[in-house]
Amino acid sequence: MSVKSTSAGPTLPFRDVVLGALIPAFIFSTGIGALLPIIAPYSVERGATLATAGVVAAMLPVGQILADLPAGQLAAKIGDRAAMLAAGLVAALGFLLAAVAPSVITLAGAVLLVGASNAVFHLARHSYLTDVTPARNRATVLSTLGGVHRIGQFVGPFLGAGVIYFFDMGAVFFLAVATALAATVTVWLARPTKRATADAAPVSIGEELTKPRFWRVLSDHRRMLVTLGSVGMMVGAIRGARQQIIPLWGEYIELDPTTISLLFGLAGGIDMLLFYPAGRVMDKLGRLWVGVPAMTILGVAMALFPLTSTATGLALVSMLLGFANGLGSGIMMTISSDISPPEARPQFLGAWRLLTDSGLGSGPLILAAGAAAGSLAAGIWVASAVGPLAAMGMQRWLPRYSDHANRTTRRRAGLID
């Protein structure tokens, strides 16, 4: 059980949080964002068919899913900060290998390596921020992390477009090499002033030397991972579907690519505006005050897409979609930090990320299955139902495992009067 924090200080201390994680996260995400739109066309340029190009692009999330569990093991063994440094260097190598890849197979391997590095970097900075941030500020810090990740992936494609204009498509990979190295250097320069929060229980030398093995962590927390972890998978699934719904439905109602891109950017812009208020609400009132409405509204917004047939209608529901996703910024990272055992945090977060990333990959498949069956609208409605289900699961299971679910659980845990 947590204890009431009496420590005071800035919510976002510069060296530990801003320089140690937020700035590197923004820089790293910018490189990934620049890469995302060009993987498929660059593969075609290198001789791949459209189908093969799709497989190459899929190597990024595949690499991330495959590396989730090893990422937790690596961070537990060498430390969060060292894992971020290693991931940044390996990502730079992957980007460089992609830039000079002599074949499509080599390019696919390089993209897989980048995806794996992204998993390690993301998990390590998540674990690091959980460690250095007091629980009273945790949601604000982690929602800000989610926000800078979104901003980086929003800015990246524009930087990539500028590089392509002045050079060529391959030069974007060299831009990504520079961002990965810059993120690594920033982490190295940070040199955090603390390793544990005032809320963390002290760990003895004996406990430090006998940290639980990964499979023991899974066994000890299997009920939590099955119940609350299934909620994480559902949140990942509806968010994965959200990423594809605007392009797919825009194509279905025969909008031109420029309009679809503008609507996608509009939703992303609204999404980015809400990360800080969402974090403050979670810290003040509890996680359920953000998680439940965010997932409910996200499901409602998705269910409205098949009812639109014009650019104006699609713009309105896209804005609602961006609002809902932005409202839930950082919610899964915050919940997983709240429930992670301090003595085995990286291993637990690796297992949690495997669940959420698997859900993220399944979301687009639900839409694709509907389209393949002859009804994209049916696929959208099935995916939209996942949102309210996730909200109900969160409402039921989160108070059981987290002292920070709402004000009632905080009062019961002695965190507030």
From TrEMBL:
Entry annotated with the keyword rRNA-binding: no
Residue ranges annotated for the Major facilitator superfamily (MFS) profile domain, each copy included: 17-402
Annotated keywords: Cell membrane, Membrane, Transmembrane, Transmembrane helix, Transport
What is the membrane topology listed in the Swiss-Prot or TrEMBL record? Multi-pass membrane protein
Q: Which InterPro entries match?
A: MFS, MFS_dom, MFS_trans_sf, MFS_Transporters
Asked if the Swiss-Prot or TrEMBL record annotates the protein with the keyword Transmembrane, the reply is: yes
Gene Ontology annotations for the cellular component aspect, listed alphabetically: plasma membrane
What sections of the protein cross the membrane? 21-44, 50-70, 82-101, 107-124, 145-166, 172-190, 288-307, 313-335, 365-391
Q: Which terms does the record give in the GO molecular function aspect?
A: transmembrane transporter activity
Subcellular location per UniProt equals: Cell membrane
A matching Pfam family: MFS_1
Its name, as the record gives it, is MFS transporter
